[in-house]
Amino acid sequence: MAWHGKLLRVNLTKGTCTPEPLNMDWVKLYLGQRGLGTKYLSEEIDPKIDPLSPDNKLIFVTGPLTGTCASTGGRYSVVTKGPLTGTVACSNSGGQFGGELKQAGWDMVIIEGKSAKPVYLMIVDGQAELLDAEGFIWGETVWDTEDAIKKRHQDPLIRIASIGGAGEGLSRYACIMNDRDRAAGRSGVGAVMGSKLLKAVAVRGTTGVAVNDPKRFLDVTREKRKILDPSPARARYSGLGTMAMMDVTQAHGSLPTLNCREVQFEHIADVNVKKQHTVRKSDGEAPYQGNKACFACSIGCGRMAKIDPDHFSIKGKARYSGVTGGLEYESAYAVGPMCGVQDVEAATYASALCNEHGMDPISFGATVAAAMELFMEGAITTEQTEGHDFSFGNAEALCWAAEVTGTAQGFGKDLGLGALRLCEKYGHPEFAMVVKGQEFPGYDPRAMQGMALGYATSNRGACHLKAAPFQDDFQRVTPDGKAKIVKDSQDYIAAIDSSGLCTFTKAAWGAPDYADQIDAACEGDWTVERLLELGERIYNLERLFNNAAGFTAKDDTLPKRVLTEPAKGGAGKGHVAELDKMLPEYYELRGWTPDGEPTTQTLSRLGLA
Amino acid sequence: MKVTVKLIAMDPFSPPGFDSNGIGTFTLADGASLEDLITQLKLPDGIGEAYMTMLNEDAVPISGRAEVPLSEGDEVTVFPAIKGG
Ligand code: SF4
Predict the structure, then answer these.
(1) pLDDT tens for residues A452-465?
(2) Is the model's pTM score more than 0.80?
(3) Which residue's CA is the nearest one to ligand 1's atom 8?
(4) Does residue B85 lie within any of the structural domains?
(5) Domains and CATH numbers, chain A
(6) What confidence category does residue B45 fall into, taking pLDDT thresholds of 50, 70 and 90?
(7) DSSP secondary structure string for all residues of A72-115
(8) Which residue of A has its CA nearest to B81?
């Protein structure tokens, strides 16, 4: 129960859509979403394959609570081998798509092979078919793709996950977008979809989701909302959104600025949350226009924004004059301080183009920042940038970069490579602020030692969502004790990421709150202990995949800049990321060898031997 | 003694006692600790919630605040215990 026990296997090479029973033994060990998707991927592909080859598989997977009334129960994950990193990629998204897929009667969709021509997958409850995308939506933006599919099939309630120009053009950090502005954002999962010539997955679901004990489930989810809804954390996510974080990292000295040359941004007041809420003179409106919630969510953190009609970026472009998905902290840091851009309207425009063309704004912004450093150092010139001045802080260059990267044209193809490949191409790999090829999110690891370890050991490259050392990092800069905080939170998050619920709920809920809801929805005893062990199992399974793909302990590292150049201000002033002091303890706590390989004992304890 | 307090990531941005930039000046008895200041502030929006503090440029652990004495002219930054974004 809570699972339908059914997956859809789509073979693009053969053009077939085949229902299959879900492996319920694996469900007991991996739950759903991130865990279950990784298990299927590990069993079905060779970790050494080229991620953009037809041998790779793309798995859309829900969790047991996806599609239910549990608050935030609309999440789904896309699991594949990531083309940005070469590691396992697991990108989690909200919006309405995941809930709709589950309500159509499917726990999972596995896409394999490669189509001979561009297609889209149409799912209406139990029926699925591949339809021609050529001359219809291939070549169109994410927004136009969604509109066209709804129009052709005469149903505004169809939910769509699709790629834009970035995915079609195989940008290494292309996203899969759903519901216009929600993204399975990181690691380039959209490029895998593009490589298979699959433009979109469209779904309409009316069958509902059954749970094991409906009365208890309703009681428990209601009780959990009584904890979540009045909590200060919910008030802040809803009131100021994730953008509130920018003032915190600025004060703390952990705001990556000018490609991590700095840890604080002198023009913060021009791009922070207060600026988003400040009414403009030009049209009497503030950039911030209101909130948008994902399926079943009682938090509603998503920002909606309107760009200044007089701003240079949208002059004569009516399609950007309305309300669109706004800046969240991670996108804002990347297209703002990281590039030295102090123009909130330009930042909002660049972020909107990331949604429209389907690219990860974190990786995009950090790649532009790297390009700006290459430009400042003379490694690239206006010859590459087609006449544009790529000095740090140039808002016009940022907007142009978003246009050409989103549509994979000219220098945009270079920018679509991601920071590492771009910097390697122009002879300065040290300018790439990446781990395992994936760009930093908005936390400089010098003032945040736990984050340093979290970035280095994340199974998908630099990531702020796979460990949660925030509270401790904001209180002390020393590296002692961080290994346990990082390891424990990585396991805990792996379980939440497999449930169908949003990770932001952990600001109000504890482990028992998740266990209670899963237990009411699913058969079998779902205790806190079982969930945490399951999280650890997932983390180790991901690690096994990466090790088999060729990653070793030497890849658990950070860019030289943050390891050797001390932070210039804030709480971390004078500090570098002290990875060498944390990694040995971390490996030991994990039950891994000094080479970063899970020991046989660890594997048998977790049922992975 | 007088200390300056800067509130960040707060909703509203400027509660009573703070200017439009979230900055306020507070008078405390000599020998008062950082913990005394936080208690005196009676912060809004934080029922049951922890607040993080920085004294001048240094982060101070919540558990150590009672042992940190304040001095004339200190700058204290206060923000809610945000758990990621
Ligand atoms: S908290 Fe935000 S991201 Fe999470 S489900 Fe709700 S609206 Fe979506």
Answers:
(1) 999 999 999 999 99
(2) yes
(3) A294
(4) no
(5) 6-204 (3.60.9.10), 256-436 (1.10.569.10), 443-605 (1.10.599.10)
(6) low
(7) TTT-EEEEEE-TTTSSEEEEEE-TTHHHHHHHTT-SEEEEES--
(8) A471
